[in-house]
Amino acid sequence: MSRRHESRELAFQLLFERSFSNAEIEELMELAMMARDIVPDDYVLRILRGVEEKQEELDAIIARFSRARTLARLSKVVLAVLRLSLYEIAYFDGIDAPVSINEAVELTKTYGGKDESGFVNGVLGSYVRSLEEAGEQ
């Protein structure tokens, strides 16, 4: 398992935890470090802070590309995975969109419901295609 994969998984877990408390990212990280003896690396910190800062924008993208479901109907797992991956795709240089999508699908298979990984793949794939059509990817 790669270091980047482990970082993504930790970022996902903390984003998922945040969906239950709406705690500030700094507080969540502090609690995680004390309770689970983990130390988030720079990648995790950048994801968490970025998702917190851009959450409204990310949620608007999710709403746009998840035509069949409203944000309120998405599981907390799917929402956390989509926010993480969309932030990576939109704001990280050097991250290939297919890699981020594959990681999102795998996280969803591990933590989500039976049919959720296909939904995540569809939303992210549609977003990336829209970027390519606009000449942004």
Précis, in short:
The chain is mainly alpha-helical and 137 residues long. It is built from six helices and no strands. The longest helix is centred in the middle third of the chain and has 24 residues, at 42-65.
Note the beta-strand portion: under 5%
End-to-end Cα distance, whole Å, is: 27 Å
SSE pattern, N- to C-terminal:
HHHHHH
Q: If helices are DSSP runs of H or I spanning 4 or more residues, what is the number of helices? A: 6
- SS-derived structural category: mainly alpha
- Please give the number of β-strands: 0
Q: Mind summarizing the main beta sheet?
A: none
Low-pLDDT segments, ≥5 res: none
Can you give the mean pLDDT?
A: 89
**Range of helix content:** over 70%
Indicate the multimeric state.
single chain
Report the C-alpha radius of gyration, rounded: 14 Å
The dominant shape is: globular
